[in-house]
Specification:
2 copies of one chain form a homodimer. The first copy, chain A, is α/β, with parallel strands linked by helices. Chain A is built from 14 helices and 7 strands. The first copy, chain A, is 51% helix and 11% strand. Chain A has a 7-stranded parallel beta sheet with strand order 3-2-4-1-5-6-7, with helices on both faces. In chain A, α5 packs across α11 and α12 packs across α13. Chain A starts with a helix and ends with a helix.
Chain lengths: 332, 332
Amino acid sequence: MAEATVKSTSTTQPTTPPASDNPLLVEVLEGRRKSVARMMSLAESTGEANRALMAEMHRHAGRAHVVGLTGVPGSGKSTMARALTQKIRESGRTVGIVAIDPSSPFSGGAILGDRIRMADITGDPGVFIRSMATRGELGGLARATLDVADIMDAAGYDVVIIETVGVGQDEVDVVQAAHTVIVVSAPGLGDEVQAIKAGVLEIADIHVVSKSDRPDARQTAINLRSMLKLGSIGSGLSTWEVPVVSTSAQNSEGIDKLVETIDTHGRHLTDTGEIEGRRRKILEMRIVKAAEDIVRERILHKGRDKLERLIDRSLAQQIDPYNAAAVLLDDS
Amino acid sequence: MAEATVKSTSTTQPTTPPASDNPLLVEVLEGRRKSVARMMSLAESTGEANRALMAEMHRHAGRAHVVGLTGVPGSGKSTMARALTQKIRESGRTVGIVAIDPSSPFSGGAILGDRIRMADITGDPGVFIRSMATRGELGGLARATLDVADIMDAAGYDVVIIETVGVGQDEVDVVQAAHTVIVVSAPGLGDEVQAIKAGVLEIADIHVVSKSDRPDARQTAINLRSMLKLGSIGSGLSTWEVPVVSTSAQNSEGIDKLVETIDTHGRHLTDTGEIEGRRRKILEMRIVKAAEDIVRERILHKGRDKLERLIDRSLAQQIDPYNAAAVLLDDS
């Protein structure tokens, strides 16, 4: 039944694309881990060199149920991702995880030794984990992350989890590129952290209260429910009633219920046809982000000399950054 | 002397631009608060309508010492911003604050009643506070924030503080557009929060340890100093030795020292000529962000029909988002 859900989210997909001539892509489609990792590295590198390959890869994506998982630092979402993965695996489905949260044990958190805690799922051949670097050259994170998610999808992973910290415009944009967005809230975080969370509450398809073994967790769930009731959070564009699920990843409590709710949301999207609108919105965002990437690449690399001359003129206050950008765009 | 510092950071500036014909800009240059606020609203709105005005405004900016203030949720940077502002005001200088931290009492934090705590500086005519919305339409935050900072600069504020939470690519890019970047670390935050912080430590010109009244603050300062010594943080491109300043905003301890250190860094930039390289880097980032804004605007608004047709083709898997973006760019 869970399996059926995943498939049902893809009924609007067109017919299967033809077999590929590209040896790397053929291996990715067979799910070979080394090739999957190699293609991800190609996706992460800037440059237009691999775009034909990526375009072909994209035609093989679109079957996975993509789940966005977000929450402020300390909300316990990484522990949640692990518990969720284990539970989904028990149903026989495979799981890909893309983490762009620097605090995640999947990525930067590893410096603190957290990766050890992940050992129980990292040895599983039905799980593929990829962490994205969040620093470095300006931009490109959103496009690269979603390409990596597509590669997992094309490689046959049934559920793809995109984990990101719920702060930062790019990070929030990326998590919204999921079919099902989960926002994790923990009881007992400070005022500052709670306020940050406020910005991300409205994007949730499912609210999760973590650490439900704590005595103050009940109040956190009550607060979320009354905010939902008052309509102060929630988009109102969907007929989906946003649920609040209480979990304790420590005791594995509520994780069953969470997986069930994710599957129900997936079915809701296809049954109501809302999946179509969501797919359009996701594609719009991806096209815009890709356009930004292409422009940035053109300016910083191919058009470097022109850029330097415009910086000279800006320094001399003969032109402002906005008009300098307009000149570059119209020349390129 | 502090006053001299601010002026000295602007010796590479060209001659004073001619007086403006635009009545709004004339009032902004006179420092009239209502006009300053109005021009900020124009800067925040998308669209190219006000670009000529903004371009003229930019020519009057470049005198202020721009200070970036960042740190994770719970680091105490908002309290720090307030203490810093009061101390700088005591030296007779005026202060503008742009906050894009949703947890800041200057912006989103207001929902928690934190704005009350700000009362002591918000009544001061020598202080101008502007909070930026961090949600809404895709992107544009970086450009708008830096335009608002320029308006404060043009309006004559001596020091402009850009406060942002130290998570998220856009947010980190923005804070790096300052002359002096301060990263606030607090003792006693959880592992997850500390790991997030790691990503932003390397951009600091000055490290601040807040809450120095706490017994574990000494260890936080020692850790930062040893990381600096080992070269595991710090860019190495500057001859500036990144200091660690311990403060307690609660007891106003260390704030004198922090203001002095900010001024010393300002002098260092001009004395060594490093200000030039930094200005180029900032302009490069601003031009790139502006180009992204223009492209996004063109695609989402002017080119809406074309975008919808490409989304149709993407849904039918006839094209991938990247190539769709390339088509849009080459057509526009």
